[in-house]
Amino acid sequence: MTRVKYCGFTRLEDVQAAAALGVDAVGFVMTRKSKRYVGLEQARALREAVPPFVTTVVLVMDDEPAYVDEIVRQVRPDMLQFHGVETDEACAAHGTRYLKAIAMGEGQGALARLRAYPRATGLLLDGHGLGETGGSGVAFDWNLMPRDLAQPLVLAGGLTAANVAEAIRVARPWGVDLSSGIETSPGLKDRAKMERFLAAVRAVPSA
Ligand SMILES: O=C(O)c1ccccc1N[C@@H]1O[C@H](COP(=O)(O)O)[C@@H](O)[C@H]1O
User: Fold this and answer.
1) Is the N end or the C end of the chain the one with fewer CB atoms within 10 Å?
2) Closest-lying ligand 1 atom to the alpha carbon of residue 7
3) Residue-wise pLDDT tens for the chain (207 aa)?
4) Number of Cα atoms under 13 Å in the Cβ half of residue 105
5) Cα-to-chain-centroid distance, residue 72
6) How many Å lie between the centroid of ligand 1 and the Cα of residue 28?
7) Does residue 26 contact residue 50 with C-beta atoms inside 8 Å?
8) For residue 175, what are the β-bridge partners?
9) Ligand 1, pocket-test mutation among 6, 23, 24, 29, most atoms within 8 A of CB
10) Is residue 207 part of a domain?
């Protein structure tokens, strides 16, 4: 079964709806570079709304280590998700399990970067180019998904209820992650879209 993470929540009711629908993980974007940015107080409130057995992930992107430490202290996420050019050592320094996002927008050039994060709990392959911001609904060539890495791989970038079945068939990821495909506008989730996406994932036969 393919795991699902919905990212970029800003409203309590959306977190509650996603959890009730059965999503595996929810993400809060705490880099100020994002249009889905939530501050410490808002993130703490959103975190409180996450029920047991749903993983809370906080996304950062080349943010100050002291700020990331403050997030860990105040929000207590289960995992961090790094979207910048942070090194493996820098990602691991916060004492919290982490996902490292790899920019696949430049195709084969990205494959070397996939091997640079031995301490990551998982790798998230996203459609943006190196140096570009994610969460913009851009997909990459799913045939580039590597098959020889030890870590679980999460597929991201431009996923919707309409394309996720084909994405899973081609890329065979451990999990999928999305923001734009379940929104009416950045940060505002749509319950019907969240429901349709989960139904589309669950309809895919297990490999
Ligand atoms: O969601 C954001 O605003 C964001 C900002 C900076 C880096 C990453 C961001 N989101 C992540 O991007 C991927 C793909 O998103 P989309 O489905 O294509 O919109 C996903 O992992 C988001 O968590």
Assistant:
1) C
2) 23
3) 999 999 999 999 999 999 999 999 999 999 999 999 999 999 999 999 999 999 999 999 999 999 999 999 999 999 999 999 999 999 999 999 999 999 887 656 777 888 999 999 999 999 876 666 777 788 989 998 998 898 999 999 999 999 999 999 999 999 999 999 999 999 999 999 999 999 999 999 876
4) 16
5) 17
6) 10
7) yes
8) 3, 154
9) 29
10) no
Q: Which residue has 């495909």 as its token pair?
A: 181
Q: Is the CB of 132 under 6 A from ligand 1?
A: no
| C-beta of 104 in contact with ligand 1 (< 6 A) | no
Print the domain residue range for 71.
3-202
3-state secondary structure of 104: coil
Report ipTM for this prediction: 0.97
The response to whether residue 27 sits with its C-beta less than 6 Å from ligand 1 reads: yes
Give, as one character, the DSSP assignment of residue 2: -
Residue 98 falls inside a structural domain: yes
As for how many domains the chain has, the answer is 1
Q: Is the CB of 178 under 6 A from ligand 1?
A: yes
Whole-structure pTM value: 0.95
